[in-house]
Amino acid sequence: MYRTKYLIGGKTNLFLQKYINQSLMSSDLKILSANIKKNILAKRNKFTVTNTVDIKEIVKEHKYVSGLHNFSNINLYTSRTHTCDQLRNEDCGKSVILCGWLEYVRLNRFIILRDGYGSTQLIIPENASTELNDFIKKIPLESVLMCYGSVKLRPVEEINKDQSTGMIEVIVDQLLLLNAVDTKLPFQLRKFNKANESLRLKYRYVDLRYPEMQYNLRLRSKLLMKMREFLIYHREFVEVETPTLFKKTHGGAQEFIVPTHEKGKCYSLVQSPQQLKQMLMVGSIDRYFQVAKCYRDEGAKPDRQPEFTQLDIEMSFTNQEGVMLLIEELLSFVWPSELGTIKTPFPRLSYEEAMVTYGSDKPDIGCSTKISNWTKYIPNASNEVFTLVLKNGEDKLTKKKINNLKTLISTNYPDVKFSLLNVKSFETFKENLKKIINGIDVVALFADNNISEHDLVAIASGSKFKALSVLGKINEHFKVDNSSDVRWRFVWIVNFPLFEMDSNQIQSVHHPFTQPQTEITSDNLLEVKGFHYDLVLNGSEVGGGSIRIHDANLQTKVIESILNIPIETMSHLVEALKSGCPPHGGIALGVDRLLSIVCNTNSIRDVIAFPKTFEGKDLLSGAPTEITTEDMERYHLKIDNIEKS
User: Fold this and answer.
1) Partners of 585 in the beta sheet?
2) Exposed, middle or buried by CB within 10 Å (0-12, 13-18, 19+), for 441?
3) How is the beta sheet containing 307-316 ordered, strand by strand?
4) Residues whose CB is less than 8 angstroms from the CB of residue 274 and which lie 6 or more positions away in sequence, other chains included
5) pLDDT by residue (tens digit) across 362-402?
6) Do residues 478 and 390 lie in contact, with contact meaning Cβ atoms separated by under 8 Å?
7) pTM for this one?
8) What percent of the chain has pLDDT over 90?
């Protein structure tokens, strides 16, 4: 159908549209003419009319069949001349072909045709045939049409300044019904009264037609392309695809298990290409990246996906500064110009600075209130006392929200003593404060702190980082005005602890492959810092990486002696480190999260074409579904207490 051999130097030396129209002539498409003299209509699906004319006659007469046309790249290999977002004032007088979905019909004369790029208003001429007018009344919305017509300027009083094509309209010459909607659509594509998300996910193929979804997915494509362009052509990186079927990794996130026909043996879907990219460094692929699919079986968590996309990067002979500089240059290169600029270098905070200042290791540095330490006002305090003064916070939380917040904190931080006080009057606040904190010096406190009536004061005491985390949760619910007027607030968080105590067991804060900053001894396990770094944007973590352990003996010590993970599970990696492994480090950027922030969506699901629900379900196909008896036998599976249908 498409004679691409006639395309020389990216231009059409022979009229490509001729061959597309020849294909149309042999198809079952029917043309409806606006010309009342021809009185052309056709039978199509449920619509029956009279006086049919062979499509070959109309196409033969049409001006597009002969001559050359200067196609833009976006219309090459298609049967259209322009998209529904392409026509402007300078196109006035041109004959055009548009293809798209019927979005709206008004007064049986004004038609809005929409495609993945935008919308254009079509005008049915006043002398159009009666049959055509009757036909338009019957066309279901969202049917697929092709329009042959000419461009004219709108009257001044009819210009739509909110529409990119609002200065023009297309006078219909001929109209083709390519495919009529033959079912009741679950919802109409309107900006107002949108369907609930469950319905939109179930009928995602309809939901994708929303302009917002089109913008998000097209921006995602361009951003990934720019990332590849920068890394390959400007920084000489090599894109390498690594397997998604791998060996189960102990520690870290829960992985999906993939059974095999070998009894008792299974694969695991990788939660990241971590070990594989380290082995690429051993193999002298010293500048690696890939746009990687990753999988984590984390259960029902809001705004998480069981499968997600990350830009995975690893380099040999580098250090923390090198990796961070690379990412700053990468983001500066790919950042869409219409979204403003980002300032580099990004500011940095140590993990402890971030926690003490904002109560979070992913702070929004421009929209968060800083935490104060009130311990100095309390003689003989048994625990440190931290506070958050929320200016004019009285009106920002309803009683219901306050109760929900208190329930959340008491459930997740039962050992933290927490209070939330409303400063309705200074005297009442001082009395309540003395009741909560025995012996507190309120005179000194008021002298040092800017507290006003109608403020909301959150107080937390207990284990230092748990108490700070409570105030961090409060900070997440109270976004203050961004005094710095910076739209994109990047910050690096560095100097994380290498290990932490959880349920009386030593665990890695991130993963067991991070290089320690100092020598690890039995006395400093909880004090030693790692060469780990997280990238935070507007209060969300969008990337994380580290310098890796490249010494086999140190890696064995961390895995086996400190974390008590059987070394056999990592023998392939340890063996690789023994084989001449260079110093190396890397990072992974969360593509979904980054796009969600850039596109200002409520959820990462709005930047993914076919996402799962927060429970990990695919509403479109109904997956996960029950396994068949044949598959159970093939993979040697037995499921107890399953109801047979």
Assistant:
1) 315, 547
2) middle
3) 238-239, 287-295, 307-316, 584-590, 540-547, 532-537, 490-494, 348-350
4) 249, 511, 513
5) 999 988 889 999 999 998 888 899 999 988 877 777 778 78
6) yes
7) 0.86
8) 66
